[in-house]
Amino acid sequence: MSTVVEKKQLFYDTIADTFDDVMNEYDVMRRLDVVFDEFLSKVDLNGRNVLDAGCGTGRFSERAVERGGRVTSLDIGARLLQRVRARCRAKPVCGDITRLSFPDDFFDVVISSECIEHTPSPQTAVMELLRVCRPGGHVVITCPNRFWKWSCIMANALGIRAYDGLENWPGWFQLRRWIKATGGKQIDSTGIHLFPFVVHRLNPLLRKLDRCGRWLGPIYVNQAVLIAKT
User: Which domains are present in the chain?
Assistant: First the structure.
């Protein structure tokens, strides 16, 4: 792996102390709602082995712990994992989502929110997430939709975006092909954010428009998929 790629993979660790401050809080809360209140609302996490892959500062780990899960928080950034330790009672593991050190069929539930696009091979990441999930278990993935990649390029060019990590955004249909090829069965799917959430006062409108995410998902900014491991 080239030094440039390695540096970009570790970019988010360099901003660990300010990561939560630069994140869009509406976006984070909306993804938490989709993952836990919609997709996993009927899945009992109490006592289950849960992996939060690409955990960042641990927002999703914290929610899973609150639901009673035995949570393993994995991230490539050691400083980010320090933030997780301070946030919740999860087991921190430093590792690469494209080369998970866990055995096959190890976790009951696997969650990965806004991570696979920051790897050299998102498809490999999807394969690994499904590999470590037990048959009959659930995998939840959220990531940006390639349909809107141009907005990221423009924001970076204008210097209005705070990130300099890898940006390998999967397409809507491409992600679903990877899931099917890896032995996963899509059981729910939705789009999040019909347009980039740059104006705070428009967040209520975005939330209402998300009601159409299951039908118009291919043109939404972000995508979320609930997968059953077959």
Answer: 3-229 (3.40.50.150)
